[in-house]
Amino acid sequence: xxxxxxxxxxxxxxxxxxxxxxxxxxxxxxxxxxxxxxxxxxxxxxxxxxxxxxxxxxxxxxxxxxxxxxxxxxxxxxxxxxxxxxxxxxxxxxxxxxxxxxxxxxxxxxxxxxxxxxxxxxxxxxxxxxxxxxxxxxxxxxxxxxxxxxxxxxxxxxxxxxxxxxxxxxxxxxxxxxxxxxxxxxxxxxxxxxxxxxxxxxxxxxxxxxxxxxxxxxxxxxxxxxxxxxxxxxxxxxxxxxxxxxxxxxxxxxxxxxxxxxxxxxxxxxxxxxxxxxxxxxxxxxxxxxxxxxxxxxxxxxxxxxxxxxxxxxxxxxxxxxxxxxxxxxxxxxxxxxxxxxxxxxxxxxxxxxxxxxxxxxxxxxxxxxxxxxxxxxxxxxxxxxxxxxxxxxxxxxxxxxxxxxxxxxxxxxxxxxxxxxxxxxxxxxxxxxxxxxxxxxxxxxxxxxxxxxxxxxxxxxxxxxxxxxxxxxxxxxxxxxxxxxxxxxxxxxxxxxxxxxxxxxxxxxxxxxxxxxxxxxxxxxxxxxxxxx
Length: 534
Known about the structure:
This protein is of the alpha/beta class and 534 residues long. Helices cover 31% and strands 21% of the residues. The longest helix is centred in the middle third of the chain and has 26 residues, at 285-310. The chain is globular.
């Protein structure tokens, strides 16, 4: 007997404030990042057209340095606020609430000067040995493969989105860093993370320091990031695969039919396609409509960003892609890359730009070493009061299974413990719930929703969405007072699905028999897998 269960609709949404409502669904997330979703395609099924109503804002905004943040990683009845009371009074008196601009994530760079500059220099002198960086150094980061939404320890391998973004912020203010040299190779993450990195690149450029991209192997995501940099270089033998975007869906209905297995799926919501892979032979009209809309929005966003950054018309970029991009020379001729150079030639060019002799080495500091530099050393640390950041990534489970690893998704009992510690602590003045999840266990999501709701009753809580916050991930966010997301975040909840396999025909074909003795009218609902649900 096999059982499929994926549930979520938020039964209690946060109050909608007209002055901050924006739709983020116009540019949803790419298909490449949902390997854990319960869906026949690489896209999450838990996306909603009609339910994207609660307070969604574009990600993200900068916090005042009077607060410091502390992150809690998980690899795994509300009271009325004063603001709501004021709005109710205003609505009763006929006054309209003032409209405020939503945070865009852009920052204004303010150069450190005067007394603060002297303090920063003194902190650098007394910094730990592993925080020492030579003046005039270039920060190098290799962006490739999987990018985690969790913080990484100094002994962990792989890339961490929070540390990548923090390195850009530190490098912008660090007087020892002259610029950034990015190696961008094939990425295995969603469009939400790609967009967040791109925004930090654009913010870094406001410091006046150079940022150069080197792309030996490049697809749409990698080129999306490279377009944010001042200059882009590629070797003569670079692999470019700018062919466009696709969505694929596979179906097992015909296979099960041949072997005598009948998947029985019950769902609420016509767009809930989680069971289609098991029951159907072709794509449903609703699923096709949803995926087509997603694909059009992602591709349209990509064309807009590339055309804007390269100073070209959208139609020209689209025609260029449709002609087939295979040769690096063609990209240079059309102005999509700056020049064709090997890595050593780019380094020689940087040495010349920084006035370093050819026989001298270029001082470079890599991602892992620079991640050890504290914000305190650069005068970017906050004050005594803290904002807690609780990170929740992966599929949702209620308890940890015996075979699960420390990085195996969201474990509700652990998240709940962290939420309670933040609620009870006087150090934390606010909390951010960082969500990167396609959903999962219904009960676990509801229990976390309740704890977040209780936290929001006593402290400001913001839900921050990464690549995906769908189904159970979306449900969790509903308990927060405010929700922020990327333009390319995939979010929403589109229904409920459950079901089981009826193996009666298979048992008959292979000569297998199973007898069940039961008490109770519904005792055999899931126990007798050789019988249908009805």
